[in-house]
Amino acid sequence: MKGSFFLYLCRDRLAHSYRKAIVNIDMGFFDFFSKDKKEVLDKGLSKTKESVFSKISKVIAGKSKVDDDVLDNLEEVLITSDVGVDTTLKIIDRIEKRVRRDKYLGTEELGQILREEIAELLTENNSQDEESFDIATASKPYVIMVVGVNGVGKTTTIGKLAYQFKKAGKKVYLGAADTFRAAAVEQLEIWSQRVDVPIVKQKMGSDPASVAFDTLNSAKANDADIVIIDTAGRLHNKVGLMNELTKIKNVMKKVIPDAPQEVLLVLDGSTGQNAFEQAKQFTAATEVTALAITKLDGTAKGGVVIGISDHFKIPVKYIGLGEGMEDLQLFNKKSFVDSLFGE
Description:
Layout: H1 2-26, H2 37-44, H3 46-60, H4 68-80, H5 85-102, H6 110-123, E1 142-147, H7 154-167, E2 172-176, H8 182-195, E3 199-200, H9 208-221, E4 226-230, H10 238-253, E5 262-268, H11 273-285, E6 290-294, H12 304-312, E7 316-320, E8 328-330, H13 333-341
Parallel strand pairs: 1-4, 1-5, 2-3, 2-4, 5-6, 6-7
Antiparallel strand pairs: 7-8
């Protein structure tokens, strides 16, 4: 009995601490409206920009033109900035072709060249800039299933998305299908209260597919526009993950035949190459249609966005640049590269 009371007390204090943290963060949510989106982007990428530029400065020190030594060192800079080996080789190859074509390229032009070639590389992904989910032309409700490991900012991303959709005049429902962690359900419930949107949940350990089924039925009955389904952030093994996500999708189709319209994978940008591995695991387990890369404001590993976007050919829809509701921005390739390498 004493042990049970102690566990209850600890859980209550953790929940209280989380609520307090949310309230404290929320105090800064609405002062965002005085900020420009570009200002937020520049600030969010400042650590990566400072790191990249300091490395490039060493590369071109004492050099007047872009030669083989500069390119070799630049290759190392990009790889150590978490751009990824394959994407880095593509970028270096593009610059080498420009050097051969233009005969002489001064080192003072290197930043401009990088900006142009990386922007062009990302454009070849064929995704449109600042394009949110195609909700307007889809049948209601539009279902977004959110996947990702624990700790990447999945629940926070769901809360921010719900806020932004509601602000746009949409009726939003949340489904707490991560039933393996009590904290996951509690955190999503807190966000639903902060954003003032309905949430459908069951007791811990319930079948996640059952939660998704109930959420879609409730959302459909109440003429909701958008449903966001949270899922368990476990990478126990590919087979188990695939079976679980497939079951959730199959059950949702019984309510809405084309659900989910989107599978959004949330990745923590601050983990660098580990984000690549997570993307590999989840894209192998299910059909991921969009990416959200979070926590870019607290890291110098922002180059990972370039590598992931290029490697997986999956649209990066959102990037997380801070704690504020509006700091989850639609990804714009040109603006991103401009902020990273200077306009």
